[in-house]
Amino acid sequence: MQRVYTFLIIAGFAVFLVIPLVSFHLLSPNTIRDVVADPARASLLEKELRSIMGKEVSSITLQRQLGNAFAIANEAIVNRYSLTGQQVDQLVNLMLANRLNQATVDSLLAGPDNEFRKTAFSNYANWLYGRAYTRDEAAREALLTISGNINNYEVIPKLGFDRYKKKSLQYSFAKASLTGPAVTHPWMLMFFSFGLVIVGAIGFSLQLLKEPPGIKNNDTFRHPATSRKWLGIIIGTFLILFYIVLYFYPELMTSWVALVDPISFWLKGSEAGHFFLYGFLYTISVVVMGVRMIIKYRHNRYQIVRTLSVMFFQTTLAFILPEILVRLNQPYFDFKNIWPLDYDFFFDFELNKLIASGQMGVFMLVWGIALALIGVPVFTYFYGKRWYCSWVCGCGGLAETLGDPFRHLSDKSLRAWKIEQGSIYTVMVFAVVMTMGVLYTYFTGSATVVGFNTYTVREVYGAFIGAVFAGVVGTGFYPFMGNRVWCRFGCPLAAYMGIIQRFKSRFRITTNGGQCISCGNCSTYCEMGIDVRAYAQKGENIIRASCVGCGICAAVCPRGVLKLENGPARDRFNPNGFIK
Amino acid sequence: MGKIVIIGNGIAGITAARHIRKMSDDAIVVISAESKYFFSRTALMYVFMGHMKFEHTQPYENWFWKKNKIQLIESQVTHLNTANKQLTLRSGEVIPYHKLVLALGSKPRPLPLVGAELAGVQSLYTKQDLHLMEQNSQGVQQAVVVGGGLIGIEMAEMLHSRDIHVTLVVREDSYWNIVLPKEESEMVNRHIRSRGVTLRLGRTVQQIKGQERVEGIALDDGTDLPCQFLGITIGVMPNTGLVENSEIDTHHGILVDEYLQTNVPDVYAIGDCVELRNPPPGHRAMEPVWYTGRIMGETVAQTLCGKPTAYAPGIWFNSAKFFDLEYQTYGFVPPTPREGYDSYYREDRKNERALRLTYDTNNNIVGINSLGLRLNHQACERWISMGKTLEYALAHLEEIDFDPEFYPKLNRSLV
Ligand SMILES: Cc1cc2nc3c(=O)[nH]c(=O)nc-3n(C[C@H](O)[C@H](O)[C@H](O)COP(=O)(O)OP(=O)(O)OC[C@H]3O[C@@H](n4cnc5c(N)ncnc54)[C@H](O)[C@@H]3O)c2cc1C
Ligand code: SF4
């Protein structure tokens, strides 16, 4: 049976990987008009995309053609709307004669053709009015800078295709023009891709039932998937590439997105986006691998309850409820995602969206703030950060289910601990400072704080922390550095809760007197890289900022040494341990 | 500043070294032939089963020793000259000492039968034994493990994890019943069998068969058991080889007083290699387990640093895991009914968890056994040392409960 399940998983993956190769894009003038709402821009593109119109092309070709089309269209628009050479000469003359002012500019740029130029120029160049210029070059240089700014900030964004518009159009074009089996037979393909993998994975998990209940980590350090050998490298590479495509090139994955369109229509009444697909796969992974986790630890009630909890929160609060909210015309909102992990909670568009959504939105706003500022410290005081990290959180949920087979790959060295402290608190400070900057901008309208543009800062955070660190590295590195890379080295919420857990909490892992035999199972299987044994063999309780309370150390300990507990905060360090 | 030399880098020797370092600036040298760095012998089985890599058995990172100025020498001590206070390494190097600590550990008890030297026949004690077992178990389909103790059952589990069929041959009528009372012992019998291991109770090995490699054994009832691997785990004995021709007194083990000192001045002995001249009440002269090694290491460090301290191991405790069945014991639990003692014994409905409270004629708790449960060490020790009564114990079972959260409570689950 093992072979059958292996075959199913490989087959499912193969089908999944083949889908993009057998999917094509068919562009028609109608698609262009549907995707690009503005008719002027649509017709510009239509001209440039004629060569692939009505032809089935691969998504790479489509993107290459689109890239060209955007570039040519932008050039045409810039040529049409920016200052002409003649106008520049005339303006320079005015400047040299010290006669540049609203009236002269208005008269120079009169007429309907110049309407756009005139407004843009008075907005961007009014500081030049009345300034004395004696040298032609200086005046020309100032004008060219202004004209460049007008092109970049006015002409292209308002009339052409700027970075953001291009990115979103690339995706919409790909999605709207998609043809092939993913569109015609989504259910069938879904069954032969995800479906087979799910059946295989469940089958594999059921195999565990053949072994009697108990800790069975046999061959963990020999299996090619879980010991950084070839299979682990393949899995890791796949995950890394998947995340790169998801975050940076979603336009290449529309054939996968199309598979879940039917589910999306059923759930929220509209087609799926790439993050819907991601949420779907994520939830499936948590549920399927959660079943495995429960079977593997079926003798351990703490593990069963905790796993059911992450499965529940991922399925309901993270996946289904937000989509239902959208269907009910409410803002998309994940009630269990907490700032600063939810780093865009305080971004202007989020705040505006919530505030604009009436009572429900305001409730969400208050909920989010209360959870971050009151809920987190209170719960962490009573239960330690495990209440969130290994019971509720989505990242934690994936780590504890899909990531469980890789938990032993975390680095336990003192060096790794030092790196962890350096990096996680840096990210926390970054997140807090960024949020303060964003709020400053929100309330004052000024985009710069001490020389930094808050929009740039949050873009940097989103790309490097939100996407690369949390996604690409956080999950992609499961098979190399264990299942909690993000939680350990990056998560700002974990850092925040860690401080509370370390200094003011009732949670600890109690060490059972002198029973430790220093075997090292606990340290080996600690996903956070805590050297649990170092404490246990001294008879000391384990109180560490990073502990997520997964309870696996206690489960694997062959001598019953460790127990996760909430108790009086006083004396929880057990300084006079049993062992001197 | 003196020079303290410790022979043996097991739990006893290393604990001594660490504690001496905490209290003094003496030069510390630890010599061992088995490995340069301290590792946990108790974890060897997990390396074989693939739960861990060997490096995970090392409780301290390699930089630790230099940082703490503990010099490590990987070599065999071949000769001891207590008159001149020096020792000789295999390389011929002579090392002087001011104080010497012998922490030589144990060696497996050999099976006195022809054929015990055949390939595929081995014991399990050292790191080298582990490597040997790795080789010896290649391609093996049937294995026999002789000896019904703690290492035997570990060996059975190790082989079983490689899908090798294992027969465990036990001299006693029931597994480890020289220590476990009948009910516990029978529960372990059932558990071993439920894991797919064949258990032959009340049997001894008469003959080992094979030319170069072991091919099988014959039991005393005449049955032949074919096997390509034969594990000998019939106990350990103190490793006294180094001191045999020296001034140092030995009996079974190296004889020491309550300060862990041998009859030779400035020579101490700790850990498995020791035999106590006057064991403390409730303890035996030889208790070759991890904890006693550790406590002796802590104790001798005090003495060596100018604070003479008698060995006081406290209430006896031990623990083990038989396949998936965890076992803990505290205090005095006689394996067979004993005049003046009685016990309260309960199992859960599925007969997979058990608790025994042994009490004396005054109803005071003197010993506790558990299977499939986790008990709180400090609470058990308190009950026994304070002589809590059975009535108190039964009314306060939650005090000793150490099972994880959400597990059924002790007072509920045992019927
Ligand atoms: C497989 C196995 C599982 C076990 N499991 C448990 C358990 O679960 N719980 C428990 O309590 N106990 C357990 N034990 C017993 C426990 O490991 C021992 O009691 C303990 O390791 C003894 O420690 P020690 O420091 O006295 O000696 P050792 O750990 O034996 O160390 C002695 C060292 O001295 C070295 N040495 C000896 N002579 C010389 C010389 N002449 N020159 C140089 N070096 C020398 C040896 O090579 C060895 O490295 C287990 C033992 C084994 C083998
Ligand atoms: S798993 Fe248990 S016995 Fe082993 S080192 Fe950790 S606490 Fe000690």
Strand order of the largest sheet of chain A: 2-1-3
Biggest sheet statistics of chain B: 5 strands, parallel
> What proportion strand of chain A?
under 5%
Please report the two chains with the greatest interface, counting residues with C-beta closer than 8 angstroms to the partner's C-beta: A-B, 46 and 44 residues
Mean pLDDT of chain A: 94
- Main sheet: strand order of chain B: 3-2-1-7-19
Bulk shape of chain A: globular
Helix content of chain A: 55-70%
- Give the class-level CATH name of the largest domain in chain B: Alpha Beta
N-C termini distance of chain B = 62 Å
- What gyration radius of chain B follows from the Cα positions, in whole Å? 23 Å
Tell me the radius of gyration of chain A: 29 Å
SS elements, strand count of chain A: 7
Which structural class best describes the helix and strand composition of chain A?
A: mainly alpha
N-end to C-end Cα span of chain A: 52 Å
At the fold tier of CATH, the topology name of the largest domain in chain B is FAD/NAD(P)-binding domain
| Secondary structure: helix percent of chain B | 10-25%
Name the ligand types.
Answer: flavin-adenine dinucleotide, iron/sulfur cluster
By CATH, the superfamily of the largest domain in chain B comes out as: FAD/NAD(P)-binding domain
Number of helices of chain B: 10
**Shape field of chain B:** globular
